[in-house]
């Protein structure tokens, strides 16, 4: 490569990476609005339908309302992560008859989402002439009063996982697949434990379930590190670089960040559900704040990424001799005698 072209290539690559960061973060988070936020409503079906029509007049498709027969079942749905809030109209109440109401939220879902829910449903109460009291059944601890510790915890775990996979590749370049997987597994447990030690014991930002958090964090590290190692083996440094871009500038905004997936474009949130950052953020919150409920899907996503990484590491790699054999060679020119 000509020496004068190298600076130009560096500037072009850096600009493209910057465009990915700016387009992904700003595209997802610059203009947020709620869509299909799941809310349980303790009221007859007819009242729930009328409430949905009223809310749609203000923001079409913002809320997905589901009727529940009892407040206990609705609360259970909130704690199981089936819904993000519960709106109780009261026994036998009808929308617009002046009865009191209650909005039950889980503060651990995030301050921004709960603020929107409170504003919308209390605004509805004022318009309907009813008093709406707010109850928080899963409040955020004082050490995580904004509900963003889980997001930054995942980011500060995923990036070192990528770095660890790259460092292993340079530290033990001749290691076989079995040894490499063993090193990645051991490193995942160590790195996961170290980050949990900081987040739980030292800072108290994600306290309450250290062993379960350690398990989830180790799985996150192994999923990211094994996939990075696999792409590095299959495509070299560009593969590892693309993996890092997929995880941070794409994966993080696709999770919804501090607002959650119900406040970003729907297609982006749908993609984010299958990326490690979104799955890991949900898993961390569910472990720390919701007693380990609704862990099935996040663990499935992380497990699939780990399986993909293992498959890439196990796939046969072309040797230099095989590449030379598959590359057609030009016929030698005839020599005159």
TrEMBL record:
Source organism, top-level taxon: Bacteria
Keywords for this protein: Membrane, Transmembrane, Transmembrane helix
Transmembrane segments: 7-29, 148-170, 182-205, 211-232, 239-256, 295-315
Protein's name according to its UniProt entry: ABC transporter permease
């Amino acid at each position: 490569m000509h020496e004068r072209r190298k600076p130009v290539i560096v500037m072009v690559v850096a600009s493209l990476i910057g465009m990915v960061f700016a387009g992904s973060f700003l595209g997802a988070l610059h203009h947020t609005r709620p869509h299909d936020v799941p809310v349980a409503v303790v009221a007859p079906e007819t009242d729930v339908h009328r409430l949905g029509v009223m809310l749609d007049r203000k923001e079409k498709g913002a809320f997905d309302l589901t009727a529940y027969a009892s407040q206990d079942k609705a609360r259970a749905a909130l704690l199981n992560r089936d819904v993000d809030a519960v709106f109780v109209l009261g026994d036998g109440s009808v929308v617009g008859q002046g009865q009191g109401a209650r909005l039950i939220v889980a503060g651990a879902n995030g301050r921004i989402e709960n603020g929107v829910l409170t504003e919308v449903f209390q605004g509805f109460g004022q318009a309907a002439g009813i008093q709406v009291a707010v109850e928080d059944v899963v409040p955020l601890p004082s050490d995580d009063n904004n509900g963003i510790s889980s997001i930054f915890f995942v980011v500060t775990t995923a990036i070192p996982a990528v770095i660890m996979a790259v460092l292993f590749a340079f530290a033990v370049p001749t290691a076989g697949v079995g040894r490499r997987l063993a090193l990645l597994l051991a490193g995942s447990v160590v790195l996961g434990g170290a980050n949990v030690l900081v987040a739980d014991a030292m800072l108290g930002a994600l306290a309450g379930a250290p062993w379960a958090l350690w398990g989830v964090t180790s799985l996150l590290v192994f999923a990211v590190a094994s996939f990075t190692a696999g792409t590095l083996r299959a495509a070299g440094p560009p593969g590892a670089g693309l993996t890092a871009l997929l995880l941070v500038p794409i994966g993080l905004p696709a999770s919804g960040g501090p607002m959650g997936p119900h406040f970003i474009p729907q297609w982006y949130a749908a993609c984010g559900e299958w990326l490690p950052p979104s799955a890991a953020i949900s898993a961390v919150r569910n472990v720390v704040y919701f007693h380990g409920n609704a862990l099935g899907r996040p663990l499935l996503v992380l497990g699939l990424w780990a399986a993909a990484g293992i498959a890439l590491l196990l796939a046969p790699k072309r040797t230099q001799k095989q590449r030379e054999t598959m590359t057609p060679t030009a016929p030698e020119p005839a020599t005159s005698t």
